[in-house]
Amino acid sequence: MTKPVSKVREAKLELYRKKGKIHAKAVSGRFNTLRWAMVWLTQIVFYGACWLQYDAVGGARQAILFDIAERKFHLFGLTLWPQDALLLAIALILAAMGLFLVTALAGRLFCGFVCPQTVYTMLFTWIEAKVEGDHLARLKLDQAPMSAEKLARRVTKHGLWLVLAGWTGFTFVGYFTPIRELAGHLATWNVGPWEGFWVLFYAAFTYVQAGFAREAVCQHMCPYSRFQGVMFDAGTRTVSYDVGRGEPRGKALQDMPAGDCIDCGVCVQVCPTGIDIRDGLQYQCINCGLCADACDEVMTKVAKPVGLIRFASELELTGTPRASGRPRLAVYGGLMAVFIGLGGWTLGQRSPLLVDVLRDRGSLAREGADGRIENAYTLKLMNLVEAPRDFEVAVSGLPGIDIVGTREFASEAGSVKAVQVTVSAPADGAGSGVRHIAFEIRAKQDPAARVVEKSTFFLP
Ligand code: SF4
Ligand code: SF4
Predict the structure, then answer these.
(1) What's the gap in Å between 257 CA and the centre of ligand 1?
(2) How would DSSP label each residue in 216-238?
(3) Does 181 lie in the same domain as 147?
(4) Residue of 101, 170, 181, 423 with fewest CB within 10 Å of its CB?
(5) 169 and 303 part of one domain
(6) Ligand 2: which atom is nearest the Cα of residue 267?
(7) pLDDT of 157-184, one tens digit each?
């Protein structure tokens, strides 16, 4: 017996857009020019900054280096240590606030103009266009059966992509390990396992993300596209289609004259994410402005004013007067000012010397040859400046308390040095028990590098 066929139509849940590869039409215009200017700017900085050298006291070193092995972050003359994590946290908060502020002002500007995903997709697409031709030629090539020419073009394209991805991976790792040494290691096939792994990992990551995933990252993987809406308000200027001016699109209707949109579809053809901006604000839109460039070109050809698609807010498009100010801008701007101030203050208060005092737990106290009581300590001297320092240690807190033996210690530039210090006090100076004392450590070359650390002295 056959089962009755269910008449119920299955509801389809689309977790991602099932669409072929997008081959966007090339377009020129002010936003395209601005995007390429940002590509040049960001990539000159990224590929170039890791090669800059800085003349530190101990010799030239890489100017920008997140030295993971030594747990230091060099930024020209400034060296940050793990103890400066607060500064890093402030920098990250500032970056987030800056992003929120820009988004509230002009939508996903970061996505359309400076996000690495956008920038590398542009570079990879540029290579693709140089090798395989314009968007129509690429579509044709995709559909054509494999041939010697197709194979040659594909091999050339992927070869160039791999070179760019490899150089990107190498450059990225060069910010975490000295890039000149890394280049030497790679040239002699003598690269360490972790360095090799991360170079390959970032190269593969770039190759896949920019060569294959492209706009899918912006649409389905990037969390920012999903929560950007909370930063928008009616005054946020995003790339928008002026419905009032453009509709009804195409030909004039019986009782209504045609709008300015001639329904040519060029704005859709140039969109790197394959959407139609005329459908309204969509989370897939990265605010790149290419559709605005394309439409301006069309409007110029049909002798109509440009700006049918433009950066405009909801209030501007609907002609609604602003009822009040924009508190979110004040909040983001205010928070940025607070964190800039906090960062500046933290940097100003930063001591060039940090000291940890550890009591020797093995023996609480011992009696010296002269009858005085001695306690032993380990002092961890962290010289945070890029210059050698001579540190002088003094102790106070008990009558007659003093350091036994050497009290001066030399420390190398940007180093941590553990030194043993013995302190003695008269046995009958202050009764028995635990007494509070203080170490004062100062750099002989720099009076500002002075630290007072509390500790205890045990008198039996
Ligand atoms: S490019 Fe301009 S005129 Fe052409 S379809 Fe898009 S909005 Fe309409
Ligand atoms: S709709 Fe326009 S602004 Fe948005 S992604 Fe497409 S081309 Fe860029």
Answers:
(1) 17
(2) HIIIII-THHHHGGGG--TT--E
(3) yes
(4) 181
(5) no
(6) 7
(7) 999 999 999 999 999 999 999 999 999 9
